[in-house]
């Protein structure tokens, strides 16, 4: 029996018409980026009960590398997993011959020398599209230490290692609050000449059954965890034209309880922080002037988020604290310059969330995950906020305490 999705006459069409149809098959939106070994990460982050356990971490990680992943230190993964291979590449010879020319086929393994260190890279993505894929930086990791990269003197693993930066048209910056400074020094946006769009990406809640999940707290999914689950990419509202759900702001899950500043940890305010950094890199050339000065990046944070001159910021909440020594932008430029800035590439925001959490948030909690564009229906949004808070209070009793950093 023929279904409504079948077109049995397709093989009888002229070859030229069939080819035009194949060309018009839309490519799925995919997030592509590299992650380290999740087991190595767990070894690094596991709390040590003794000095011996702490000293044994490097050896434990080396054993994992030798036995579990001898051919790679980092590996490229793709979201959604179901789109790892574009269907027309396997539909028939005709479609494959056309679409093969539209993709880059990376080697399964390669070794890239970074600052004198050989980095083995594995590609779990057999086909890449420099035009459509969102090539994303998931974190800042070092090749020479067992921990997440904590200072710029560690050997840095390039966020697009093994790729051709000159061809990337869509970049992604996974929201990295814990390591924003080292991450920002790696993501050289000015070295992406073909860039047409840059997305700020944030992660959804941790899958409930994952071993990283802590009791009583709503945790944020880590990139090393996300690779094991089916996830969806959701376009969320740009904070410049609306507001996102409280599940991304006041009630946003985090990966570890170290966040003391409420404004930084809310996604909509983090966007302002991120845009201020972008402006200083692209327009003010601050990236080259600041170099490894972590304090200067903190000044940018205060500048982007300050509401009054007394809040640990510049003399005026509108005057750039980096000018003139570390910012070559307009004399005395103000926040309004950044607020009205329209870069040569489009800015967008995306939410990478595990499918079951997406279904629960939408169907059970009736959350408008994509956010609220202006004009906002305040009464409806307040009801949504209340449902989310009630859910957290009923299921994650330690969430608010953990949020403030009170839990060891």
Can you give keywords for this protein?
nine-stranded mixed beta sheet, 16 helices, 32% helix, globular, 408 residues, two-stranded antiparallel ribbon, 2 domains, alpha/beta
- Please tally the helical runs, counting DSSP H or I stretches of 4 or more residues: 16
* Beta content: 5-15%
- SS elements, strand count: 11
Overall number of structural domains = 2
Strand order of the largest sheet: 3-4-2-1-5-6-7-10-8
| Mean of residue pLDDT values | 81
Main sheet specs: 9 strands, mixed
User: Per the principal axes of the C-alpha atoms, what is the gross shape?
Assistant: globular
Percent helix range? 25-40%
Spans of at least 5 consecutive residues whose pLDDT stays below 50 are 146-153, 257-263, 308-315
How big is the Rg? 23 Å
Distance between the termini: 62 Å
SSE run? HEHHHEHHEEEEHEHEEHHHHHEHEHH
What class do helices, strands and sheet pairing give? alpha/beta
Structure summarized in a few sentences:
This protein has 408 residues and is of the alpha/beta class.
Describe what you observe in this structure.
With 408 residues, the chain is α/β, with parallel strands linked by helices. It has two domains: 26-292 and 338-403, no CATH class; 293-337, no CATH class. Helices cover 32% and strands 15% of the residues. It has helices at residues 15-23, 38-45, 51-55, 57-68, 88-91, 93-99, 180-186, 223-226, 262-265, 267-282, 286-290, 294-305, 335-339, 355-364, 378-395, 399-403, and strands spanning 31-36, 74-79, 109-114, 117-123, 134-137, 170-174, 197-203, 231-236, 242-243, 346-354, 372-373. It has a nine-stranded mixed sheet with strand order 3-4-2-1-5-6-7-10-8. The protein has a two-stranded antiparallel sheet with strand order 9-11. Helix 2 runs antiparallel to helix 4 and helix 10 (267-282) packs across helix 12. The longest helix is centred in the last third of the chain and has 18 residues, at 378-395. The chain is globular, with a radius of gyration of 23 Å. The N and C termini lie far apart (62 Å). The model is unreliable at 146-153, 257-263 and 308-315 (pLDDT under 50).
């Amino acid at each position: 029996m023929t279904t409504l999705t079948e077109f049995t006459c397709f093989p009888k069409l002229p070859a030229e018409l069939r080819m035009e149809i194949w060309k018009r098959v839309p490519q799925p939106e995919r997030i592509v980026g590299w992650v380290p070994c999740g087991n190595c990460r767990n070894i690094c982050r596991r709390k040590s009960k003794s000095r011996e356990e702490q000293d044994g971490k490097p050896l434990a990680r080396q054993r994992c590398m030798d036995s579990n992943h001898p051919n790679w230190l980092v590996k490229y993964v793709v979201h959604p997993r179901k789109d790892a291979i574009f269907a027309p590449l396997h539909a028939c010879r005709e479609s494959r011959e056309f679409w093969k020319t539209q993709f880059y086929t990376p080697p399964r393994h390669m070794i890239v020398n970074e600052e004198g260190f050989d980095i083995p890279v594995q590609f779990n993505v057999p086909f890449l599209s420099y035009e459509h894929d969102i090539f994303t930086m998931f974190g800042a990791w070092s090749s020479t230490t067992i921990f997440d990269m904590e200072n710029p003197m560690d050997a840095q693993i390039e966020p697009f290692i093994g790729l051709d930066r000159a061809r990337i048209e869509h970049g992604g910056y996974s929201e990295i609050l814990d390591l924003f400074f080292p991450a920002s020094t790696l993501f050289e946006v000015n070295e992406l000449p073909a860039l047409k769009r840059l997305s700020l990406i944030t992660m959804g809640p941790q899958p409930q059954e994952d071993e990283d999940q802590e009791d009583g707290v709503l945790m944020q999914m880590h990139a090393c965890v996300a690779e094991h689950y089916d996830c969806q990419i959701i376009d969320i509202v740009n904070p410049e034209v609306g507001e996102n759900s409280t599940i991304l702001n006041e009630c946003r899950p985090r990966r570890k309880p170290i966040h003391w500043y409420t404004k930084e940890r809310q996604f909509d305010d983090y966007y302002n922080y991120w845009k201020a950094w972008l402006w200083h890199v692209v327009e003010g050339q601050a990236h080259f002037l600041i170099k490894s000065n972590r304090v200067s990046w903190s000044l940018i944070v205060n500048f982007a988020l300050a509401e009054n001159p007394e809040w640990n910021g510049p003399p005026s909440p509108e005057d750039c604290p980096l000018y003139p020594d570390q910012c070559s932008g307009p004399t005395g430029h103000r926040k309004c310059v950044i607020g009205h800035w329209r870069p040569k590439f489009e800015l967008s925001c995306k939410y990478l969330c595990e499918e079951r959490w997406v279904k629960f948030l939408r169907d059970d909690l009736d959350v408008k995950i994509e956010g609220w564009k202006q004009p906002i229906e305040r009464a409806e949004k307040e009801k949504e906020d209340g449902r989310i808070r009630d859910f957290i209070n009923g299921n994650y009793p330690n969430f608010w305490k953990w949020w403030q950093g009170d839990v060891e």
